[in-house]
Design goal:
The chain contains twelve helices and ten strands. By secondary structure, the chain is of the alpha/beta class. The protein has a single domain, classed as Rossmann fold (3-Layer(aba) Sandwich).
Length: 299
């Protein structure tokens, strides 16, 4: 079986490849957009193809049985265009199975800009004629830890959470689920990949304080105050908007589902926030100073 993994140079894509090599007898093709990403792939040879280059994508996917589509990045219109190109290339290549990373809040009526993109991508999949499986992941634990770090002022963390709850899930757990789906036949359904508990701000603060041994108190800010803080910190306007709309959806309790789908797919429980904090420290590891690197994959 020939499996092509997009976003292979990123945190999630590279972990999907490692999981596939450990657990499944298959030929893995690592698709990257930039040559510099190829050095992080170890013994898997990369194929370079930009998501906007349809001929290159068709060549990269030639002979593919399964495509694992880790989400693109940037503004939502660009993401949707990239996903349409990749799905079209997989269809043209005769792939029998597309495994796609989506979000728990995949809905056209969500305030979260990327949730609308998830919903549209899922529609493209259903209309593609290919077999498909979707992993709807909750917000990445590592991404949230980066936001906490960036929003921290002393013992106070300023975020517009209100009473929203989030079933934070680790990157590694999501990657293992994508690999498990790629190793099997198309399921034709959306699998909800979540952490073991839906946590509110008070619970998150208590766990962080215990794990980091640092006093932690969440201060509920308004969306406008949150945007102002991000702007003063030098955040790109697009990512400020994306983060703000994500918290709008959190306050609507769109990320609070707790599911056993990850255990059903992998046979193991998903990591708790406390476990991730203990293993990676306060930043969650591998996240740039703005959190944008993770946002592009929690998008």
């Amino acid at each position: 079986m020939r499996v092509v993994v997009t976003g292979a140079g990123g945190q999630v894509g590279s972990e999907v490849i490692r999981s596939l090599l450990r657990s499944h007898a298959c030929e893995v093709v690592a698709l990257v957009r930039r040559p510099e990403a190829a050095g992080r792939l170890g013994r898997v040879a990369p194929v370079i193809a930009d998501y906007g280059d349809q001929p290159a994508l068709r060549r990269a996917l030639s002979g593919a049985d399964t495509l694992v589509m880790v989400s693109s990045d940037g503004p939502v219109a660009q993401v949707i265009n990239h996903h349409a190109n990749i799905i079209d290339a997989a269809q043209q290549a005769g792939a029998s199975h597309i495994v796609a990373l989506s979000g728990l809040d995949a809905s056209a009526d969500s305030p979260f800009c990327y949730a609308q993109g998830y919903a549209y991508t899922e529609r493209l999949l259903r209309d593609s004629g290919c077999g498909w499986s979707v992993a709807r992941a909750s917000i990445f634990t590592e991404f949230f830890l980066a936001l906490v770090r960036d929003a921290r002022a002393g013992k106070h963390v300023h975020l517009p959470l209100s009473d929203g709850r989030i079933s934070l899930v680790s990157r590694a757990d999501v990657a293992r689920c994508l690999a498990a789906l790629a190793g099997g036949p198309p399921t034709g359904r959306c699998h909800e990949i979540t952490g073991p508990a839906a946590l509110d701000a008070h619970s998150i603060a208590a766990l962080l304080e215990r794990g980091l041994r640092t006093p932690t108190t969440f201060i509920d800010t308004t969306p406008a105050e949150f945007c102002l803080r991000r702007a003063r910190a030098g955040e790109d306007p697009w990512w400020t908007y994306a983060f703000k709309t994500m918290f709008d959806s959190v306050r609507e309790q769109r990320w609070c589902t707790v599911s056993g789908d990850a255990h059903d797919l992998t046979g193991r429980a998903t990591a708790s926030l406390a476990t991730v904090v203990a293993s990676t420290g306060p930043t969650g590891g591998g996240v740039d100073s703005t959190g944008a690197a993770e946002a592009r994959h929690r998008r």
